[in-house]
Amino acid sequence: MQITNKKDSLHRIADEKKLLEHYVVIQKTRFMNFDMHYNVEPDTENLLIRKFLLQSIVENAIIHGFSRGKVNGGRIELKSYRKEGRLHVDISDNGKGFDISEWEQREESADMQHTNVGIKNIRQIIKLEYGEPFGLFMESEPGKGTCAHFILPVMEMGAAADDTDDNN
């Protein structure tokens, strides 16, 4: 509640991780078919990220990748690191996966899966807030799982956060 009640749209990766930890406890109580692993590089813990940016990807892994508890032995990993002056965040799972090319061609419609809407919305938010070359890039293969790869600007408390506000 403390994190969600703050007005800022950005918070530290450490805070996002804490939100995910609480979310995962609730989902594991419901479905009991997966484990969550965190590999957050220490030099990324205090970098800023948009609130709830990662939760919907974890939710997709649980709901769609592990079929709401019907697929056992699920594993989700959150990994964050810096590379070439950018923040990289990967969320990967060993769920059922999907055909990326078919998914990207799917038209938006009333019967569309939640996954399609959520990921496309996240992509649009990143594009609008940060522009190129940042984004959310998906890799998936049926039967082999999915990896959501975020490439985001490195934003630190103070100056970088203020710079982001100027872009809006």
TrEMBL record:
Entry-linked InterPro entries: Bact_2-comp_sensor_kinase, HATPase_C_sf, HATPase_dom, Sig_transdc_His_kin-like_C
The protein, known as: histidine kinase
Q: Which UniProt keywords apply?
A: Kinase, Transferase, Two-component regulatory system
Please give the start and end residues of each transmembrane region.
none
Catalytic reaction annotation: ATP + protein L-histidine = ADP + protein N-phospho-L-histidine
User: Does the record's keyword annotation contain Kinase?
Assistant: yes
Establish whether keyword Cell division is in the entry.
no
Which parts of the sequence belong to the Histidine kinase/HSP90-like ATPase domain? 53-154
Could you tell me the Gene Ontology terms of the biological process aspect for this record? phosphorelay signal transduction system
What gene name is listed for this protein? ypdA_22
Q: What is its EC number?
A: 2.7.13.3
Q: Which residues form the signal peptide?
A: none
GO MF terms held by the record: protein histidine kinase activity
